[in-house]
Amino acid sequence: MIAVVDTAVTGGVRDIRTNLFLAATLFAGETGAVPVKVRNLSPGGALIEAATLPSSGSAIRLARGALGVTGAVAWAAGNRCGLSFDGAISVKDWMSPPVNGAQQRIDRAVSQLRSSGTTQLVSRRAGGCVTVTDEFQIMAQLMEQLGEALSADGELLVLHHVQLQKIDIVTQMLEATGGALAERPGSARRLADLRASAEQALRSGTA
Which of 2, 45, 81, 107 gives a 20 to 30 Å CA spacing to 202? Predict the structure, then answer.
C-alpha cells in the first residue's frame, strides 16, 4: 500500500491526513452495517466510499478489525462522505494489518462447539443408546449453534450473509435426514425440498 501524507484543517486544528485505501465497516442506524473503503484518514476524521451511505449528521461507528471509533457524518455526496470522529485515533494503528477479530471469534466458537459436541456424544455412547439418527441430530445442533454464533456478529453477517444462509440449509438438511432415517412423518418430503434448495445454492452461488 502506498500512502500519501498531506494536511487538512479540522475544527481549526491542522491534522495530518493520509491518503490510502483501507477496507472497513461502517455502522449507522439508517443503513445498518456497510462495508466501506477508507480513502483518507486523519486522527479526527476520514473520507470513505460505499454504495450506501448514511445522511449528513448521522451518528456512526467505523470499525476495522479490532479497532473502532464513534462519530458523525460531517457531509455526504454521492458515494462518498466525510466522517468526524468523537475522539482522536492513531492513524498508524489503523493502517496496520487488522487483527482478525472475526476469525478469532469463529475459531473460539468452533472450538467451544467441538468440545461440547464431543462431550455430549461420548456421554450418549457410554449409555449404549446412540443411533445414526442421534448422530445427525447432534451434528444439526452443532451447526445451528455455530450459525447463531456467527450471525450474532454484525460485521460477519454483512460480509458473509450468503455463506451463513448455506450453513442454515445444511443445518436443516441434517435435521431432516435424521428425521427421515427415523421415519418421522413429513421428513422425507422436507429433505427433498431442502435438497433442491442446496442444489440451487451450488449452481448459483447466491443462495
Answer: 107
Model confidence over 95-143: pLDDT tens digits? 887 655 555 555 555 555 555 554 444 444 444 555 677 777 777 777 7
Q: Return the bridge partners of 4, or none.
A: 19
Per-residue exposure over 154-172, b if at least 16 CB sit within 10 Å of its own CB, e if not: ebbeebbeeebbbbbbbbb
The residue extents of the domains of the chain are: 4-95, 101-204
What's the gap between Cα 103 and its chain centre? 10
Query: Does residue 164 surpass a pLDDT of 50?
Result: yes
Are the C-beta atoms of 66 and 99 separated by less than 8 Å? yes
Pairwise CA distance, residues 88 & 170, whole Å: 45
CATH H-level superfamily of 4-95: predicted glycosyltransferase like domains (2.40.10.220)
Which of 139, 206, 207 is CA-nearest to residue 175? 139
pTM of the model: 0.46
